[in-house]
Amino acid sequence: EGLNLKNVSYLRTHDDASAIGEAINEHAKILVVGSSFIGMEMASYCVRKVKQITVIGSIPFHRSFGKEIGTQVQRFFESKGVKFLLDTTPQSLKSIKNDGAIQQVVLKNGKVVEADAVVIGIGVLPSVEFLKGSQLLPSENNYIVVDERMQTNVKDVYAVGDAVFGPVLGTKTNIGHWQVAQYHGKVAAKNMLLKPTVLHTVPFFWTRFFNMSIRYVGRKEWVKVKVTSSVAVWCKVSISRTELPKMG
């Protein structure tokens, strides 16, 4: 309820970015829904530009980096003035002045938060409705399943990009990042041209806030996380695995 109110935005297009920019001022109370990459980057951008910035979600980055690192990141953001409301979600967005603009967010835990703008960054789902009734087998989350040559379960039908569920470092998963999608296209094209090629890539991504960055290489299934310095001066993190897959 209330997603169509003024100053309620996703961050997907240039128009979205422009609308968010217009809502940001020194008197504004900004509410960010989502505590992963889009949400945290948005929160860091708003610091010192708005009166109040609040993030609704879970421990930041915990799905990508684990709770240990996520908790450190949360404390770092809190030291910059960012507030967190964890383990709850918005239930409705309201225009109290009846002027068509957002003013309040009602949470599932019953709390009401004032907001002059809401930015939603909660991830995406694959747009594969057009494949209903086809012979393609979907994954549990409706991604398109492919093999190491980017071929689906239907011979000579290939799929690439963010909508696929395929092999990554010895397992199958979905990686929503341009570097992987770009490589998918190269592998699929070669196989279509009868030049047998197997997908062989190491995914990576990064995020940047407060003039600092997190850089990540590999995939997120680890057995041990070790923080070797304080996140306040930024953290060096070693993520070790019991056994790394062979690359050849």
TrEMBL record:
InterPro entries (UniProt xref)? FAD-oxidoreductase/Apoptosis, FAD/NAD-bd_sf, FAD/NAD-binding_dom
Task: Please provide, in alphabetical order, the Gene Ontology terms of the cellular component aspect for this entry.
Answer: cytoplasm
Q: Name one Pfam family in it.
A: Pyr_redox_2
User: Does S-adenosyl-L-methionine appear among the keywords?
Assistant: no
Which sequence ranges are marked TM in the entry?
A: none
Q: Where is the FAD/NAD(P)-binding domain?
A: 5-185
User: Coiled-coil ranges per the record?
Assistant: none
Instruction: Tell me if Flavoprotein is a UniProt keyword of this record.
Output: yes
Example GO molecular function = oxidoreductase activity, acting on NAD(P)H
Cross-referenced SUPFAM superfamilies: FAD/NAD(P)-binding domain
Supply the Gene3D superfamilies for this chain. FAD/NAD(P)-binding domain
- Look up the record and name the cofactor or cofactors this protein needs: FAD
Question: What are the alphabetically sorted keywords of the record?
Answer: FAD, Flavoprotein, Oxidoreductase
Q: What is this protein called?
A: FAD/NAD(P)-binding domain-containing protein
